[in-house]
Amino acid sequence: MMPNRPSVLLVYAALAASLAFTACSAGGEAVSSTPPSGRGGGQNPPVPVTAAPVEQKSVPFDMQAIGTVIAASTVAVRAQITGELISVNFKEGDEVQEGQVLFTLDKRPFEAALLQAQAQLQKDQAQLANAKAQAVRYQDLAQRGIATREQVDQMTTQAAALDATVAADQANVQSARVQLDYATIEAPISGRTGLLQVHKGNLVRANDTIPIVSINRITPVYVTFAIPESMLPQFKQYMAAGTIHVDARAPNDTGAASIGKIDFIDIAVDNTTGTIKVKGTFPNEDRKLTPGQFVNVNVTLTTDRNAIVVPTVAVQSGQQGTYVYVIKADNTVELRPVVVARTHGDDSIVRTGVKPGETIVTDGHLRLVPGSRVSVKTGRGNSDKAAS
Using one digit for the tens of pLDDT, what is the confidence trace for 2-58? Predict the structure, then answer.
């Protein structure tokens, strides 16, 4: 069965029309669906960023640590004799001076013992005097042939024995006097008293395990802290140069820090932590530091007078190292590699890469590539500076 000829002719006519349209388009200007580029169709909008200048200023070379306050001296006051406590001559927390009477024990038993020892001494001294006189008398009688040599030796030995007895009595008198002195307890050092453990009327025992009171000498005090062993060579170098400055402040203390000086470095590094202990002495005249307290220690080794400083947030890290974006005069940015020596607070001290007076990007890095145009905002509330 033959196909319908009018339908075939319509198909052929449509194909011919399509080919003719294509040919006409090929002979004229091509049509592009891509939007015009920045070069032909206008500039891309500048990238908004914040910026800050590169500065040159004095920056301390310091380090921070956690320290512990230690009293210069600590004494636990104990009784050296057993007796009744009859007076307490201070209040808890008082500042006491060396030699100040703190406690008094009942002296009567010790006064009686001293009198008894003195009486025994006097008795034996009288016997000694008589024995020496007898020895001299028998010596004279022996020379005249009246006394025998044995009698002379006996009198001489008796005098020598009494001489030793008198010496022992003198020691007993001295011991009794010392025991009597122990009934008055004085402050062995100047400092601040702690909690009173025994009150008036109680019986205190000689060398009891619990002290009557403890005294801390807190002017001056010591602060110990640890530094990494990698810092030890620099620490010793600046310590020898006399440039080290140390201060300590209690956590949450908004007042002025206590100023001290480093006077001791331990003789060995702790292998378990890789640190070494350092001790500083603080006058502590204002009593701000308390023994046992944890403090924040800041050690300034030296001060770099001409450090090149940039905000730490401006320094970025990439595959080739650290870099910053420097804003040029035409408001385009340049990627500049930098070498950071160290950080101090929110700043980074740069060894090479930038110069004082240059402006660098501190925020907005993610949208930047070298050559990007920027709209700068300094970060201090100034209005944007549009790209020219």
Answer: 444 444 434 344 444 444 444 434 343 333 333 344 444 456 789 999 999 999 999
Query: Of 361, 317, 357, which is closest to residue 337 (Cα–Cα)?
Result: 317
Tell me the per-residue pLDDT of 353-386, one tens digit each, with 9 for 90 and over: 999 999 999 999 999 999 999 998 754 434 444 4
* pLDDT tens for each residue of 229-242: 999 998 999 888 88
Q: What's the pTM value of the predicted model, to 2 decimals?
A: 0.66
Q: What is the dihedral of CA 184, 187, 192, 194, to 10 degrees?
A: -50
